[in-house]
Design a protein that fits this description.
By secondary structure, this protein is of the alpha/beta class. It has one domain (46-185): Rossmann fold, CATH 3.40.50. The chain is built from three helices and ten strands, in the order ββαβαβββαββββ. A six-stranded mixed sheet has the order 5-4-3-6-7-8, sandwiched between helices. Strands 1-2-10-9 form a four-stranded antiparallel sheet. The structure holds inosinic acid and magnesium ion (MG). The site of inosinic acid has 18 residues, from β4, β6, α3 and β9.
């Protein structure tokens, strides 16, 4: 496991900041097993469409998907709310829409992290427009102050209010390949 490290000059304004390990690879793996079992149980008699929210969720998506013991279809949607910074822009834009027919289907959205809940609200509205049977959300992370308008159905970990990277989460589009989750310190 890569230990704590300092960001180099290629990170611009973040250069010199320290990243400290918050959730290890092993802890993530164990939690995903539990989530996979829970989701498989809840959708036992259904064939849900699992929709990954790009880019951040792709690693969580792939690992969680392999913990499912049920039949499920996949698709992806891409939105943007952060403009290469560490604060939400307050607006959500649809960059790539889903390409399958989700009417009459049970949809499970996979997010990397739910912070303000703005993206979740946007996605819920977009997907429910399609006459879905159900729309639920699974997220790897939420921050402890997060108060989305609707409840989050599956949560991997609730973390303190820190910017985090690794395991799919980025800073300036980098560090998604770290196997554990790290917190950016001031
Ligand atoms: P929300 O709309 O504020 O809930 O933000 C959700 C999106 O912002 C997530 O899907 C991430 O892409 C991004 N985001 C929020 N917090 C973090 C973070 O700590 N690290 C990396 N990305 C984050
Ligand atoms: Mg995201």
């Amino acid at each position: 496991m890569k230990s704590d490290f300092i960001l180099n000059e290629s990170f611009g304004e973040f250069a010199g900041k320290k990243l400290t390990i918050m959730i290890s690879e092993e802890t993530i793996k164990a939690r995903l097993k539990e989530l996979g079992q829970q989701i498989s149980k809840d959708y036992a008699d259904k064939v849900p469409i699992i929709i990954g929210v790009l880019n951040g969720s792709f690693i969580f998506f792939a690992d969680l998907f392999r913990e499912l013991s049920i039949d499920a279809e996949v698709d992806f949607i891409k939105i943007s709310s952060y403009h290469n910074k560490i604060e939400s822009s307050g607006t959500v834009r649809l960059i790539k829409d889903i390409s399958c027919d989700i009417s009459g289907r049970d949809v499970l959205v996979i997010e990397d992290i739910i912070d303000t809940g703005l993206s979740m609200k946007f996605l819920k509205r977009r997907l429910e427009e399609c006459n879905t049977t159900s729309v639920k959300f699974a997220t790897l992370l939420t921050k402890d102050y997060t108060k989305p308008a609707d409840k989050i159905d599956y949560i991997g970990f609730t973390i303190p209010d820190k910017f985090v990277v690794g395991y799919g989460l980025d800073i300036n589009q980098k560090l998604r390949n770290l196997k554990s989750i790290y917190a950016l310190n001031n």
